[in-house]
Amino acid sequence: MSKGLLIDITKCIGCRSCEAACKAQNKLPENNDPDLTATTYTKVMERGDRFVRKMCMHCQNPTCVSVCPVGALQKTNYGPVVYDESKCMGCRYCMAACPFQVPRYEWSSAFPRVRKCIMCKDRVAQGLQTACAEACPVGATTFGERDDLIHEAQDRIRQEPGKYVNQIYGFSEVGGTGVLFITDVPFEKLGFRTDLLKEPYPMLTWNVLSKIPNFVGVGATLLFGIWWITSRREEVKKEEAEALSKKDKH
Amino acid sequence: MNFSRLRIPRITFWRAVVAVFMILGVYALFVRYTRGLGASSHMTDLFPWGLWIGFDLLCGVGLAAGGFTICAAVYIFNVERFRPIIRPTILTSFLGYLLVITALLVDLGRPYRIWHALVMWNPHSVMFEVAWCVMLYTTVLALEFSPIVFEKFKLEGPLKIIHKISIPLVILGVILSTLHQSSLGSLYLIMPTKLHPLWYSPILPIFFFVSAVAVGLCMTIFESYLSNRAFKKKLEMDLLADLGKIAVVVLAVLLVLKVQDLQYRHVWRYLFQPTQEAFLYWIEVTMGIIVPMVLLMFRKVRYHSFGLFASALLVLLGFVMNRLNVSITGMTRGSMTTYFPSFLEIMVTVMIVSLGFVIFSQASRFFPIFADSKEPVGTASELPVPEADRSESFANRPSYARSRH
Ligand code: SF4
Ligand code: SF4
Ligand code: SF4
């Protein structure tokens, strides 16, 4: 069910058709920002003599979705991680937490929004492929079911084991991403983060958050208990003191 | 009479300073609300949380932790002798939270949607939980502060109601505080590959909670010292020294936890690398935990008003450093960028802090906050106060009496 993109770095010729197609699709202003910005959802980065596309990874279990306090970011069941600007209050936790540092902010706006690739959600919902995949002249970016793309990637690696690095980036990183990469140059040399955990990041906080109801129950009982004990003790003390003073009077 | 004359130049000097801070702060706010966060701050896409989250939120909430610690001690653990400091502590905490919310309104990209967090739920988000807790706890603090207002205006009806619910209120406050003090640490649990390993730990929430308790105690010492100086009051030395003693224990627990955590995660080696992070970590732990802990172990220091104050100040500084390390200095390397707050960011923070001082001093003149306050005490004399509470050290009444009567 979940769609994704497979990006084959060995095939990319750096023509930047995907960038242009994305700008057109999302009605973004033309500019030549050197990195992802609020008006550039995807960017072809030069890394040595290779070209690496940068974009939202559309994680299977996205960190940004889990941290957003108002649920402005959502993972759709068909793949794209989408953003509802009418909910966002601009806390920027999504930006701080995204392990790939993808979401961008409209820093110069008085009513800023979070901006990032949304995997052409309207096109994908209609059964079309993403604009960038459609625009790619050499098939370096291909669109499809994530499972099919994984098989495709495995096939390519199997057919040319001498050429490809035996790893699909995004297969297990942060618990799996919708966008997958294969390459002939080791990923760490291409600016990919290779220190990421293999399990979904949202579990790191959910493990703690899910215990809160229990904590509240136990905590409240304990505190009431302590209060009950300490205040009883004082009453006893007072009664004893009174008894004592009565005795004195006699 | 002579005193007030002597103090005139000093007060005008501070007033001038505060006025300058306010003007710069308002200018910074003007830039922020007209030209956006980009023009007013050095935050970037790679570093979206700056000084306002690191200091104003994390430190602000922590420094306001005195309220729940002292309330818990008096109302739940029945340590009656801390009662005289309840009022100033609650005032500090209440103000602290109001200022934190003010800062959030500056930091949020769309501040007019702050209420969204309360109606659009995402229970998976730590921020969602923090938002709820901060909102509820600020309400609790307002209620805990309200008897002082009711007393001032001699409103007996509401006063009685508050007294009836005081214990559940305190318990609610303690639970909410425990939750969000620790959750501020949980915010960073989801950034294991950004936060430096010296600070990233699965027990970040516990660190945040324990250090908040320590700093809550030290903040009470700090503010008692300052208000005693400002209002020429006698220090309740015994009482503050006791707080110092408790702080030793809490700091010791924090230190043991820190050491065990480094051991458990096998990250000792980072301590001995010539990095900025290692340097900052050493300062944070020695200056902010070990030195004040050792100092406060000595009775002489605890009963020496400046010694006590200085030790408490060290704890506060170490605490601020810890929060800034977690939120800023420990994050830059993992975020592959650098960050230093802009002048305007600093000005907003400075304005908010000085606002805190001004409101505190004004409020403590206006309301019966301090034990030997000259304010009329109003209905307080009619309150049912346990015999044990009538110690000579304070002529004033507890902010609300115990409900078991
Ligand atoms: S890459 Fe970042 S922004 Fe994109 S889905 Fe994953 S966590 Fe969200
Ligand atoms: S900035 Fe907006 S989208 Fe991002 S976490 Fe905050 S509310 Fe959600
Ligand atoms: S999927 Fe769509 S939004 Fe994302 S980079 Fe490609 S064209 Fe742009």
Write a structural description.
The complex is a heterodimer of chains A (250) and B (405). By secondary structure, chain A is an alpha+beta fold. Chain A folds into two domains: 3-200, Alpha-Beta Plaits; 212-249. In chain A, 36% of the residues lie in helices and 14% in strands. Chain A contains eight helices and nine strands. In chain A, strands 8-1-9 form a three-stranded mixed β-sheet. A two-stranded antiparallel ribbon of chain A has the order 2-3. In chain A, strands 4-5 form a two-stranded antiparallel ribbon. With 405 residues, chain B is mainly α. In chain B, helix 3 (66-76) runs antiparallel to helix 8 (166-186) and helix 9 (204-230) packs across helix 14 (305-332). Chain B starts with a helix and ends in a 39-residue tail after the last helix. Chains A and B meet through helix 2, helix 3, strand 6, helix 7 and helix 8 of A and helix 1, helix 3, helix 6 and helix 8 of B. One iron/sulfur cluster is lined by residues 67-70, 72-73, 88-94, 114 of chain A.
Order of helices and strands of chain A: EHEEHEEHEEHHEHEHH
Amount of beta strand of chain B: under 5%
Gyration radius of chain A, rounded: 27 Å
The CATH architecture of the largest domain in chain A can be named as 2-Layer Sandwich
The level of helicity of chain B is: over 70%
What is the rounded distance between the termini of chain A? 90 Å
- The number of distinct β-strands of chain B equals 0
CATH superfamily of chain B: Formate dehydrogenase/DMSO reductase domain
Instruction: Give the strand line-up of the largest sheet of chain A.
Output: 8-1-9
What is the name of the CATH topology of the largest domain in chain A?
Alpha-Beta Plaits
Number of helical stretches of at least 4 residues of chain B: 15
The gyration radius over C-alpha positions of chain B equals 22 Å
- Mind telling me the CATH class of the largest domain in chain A? Alpha Beta
Quick one: overall form of chain B? Answer: globular
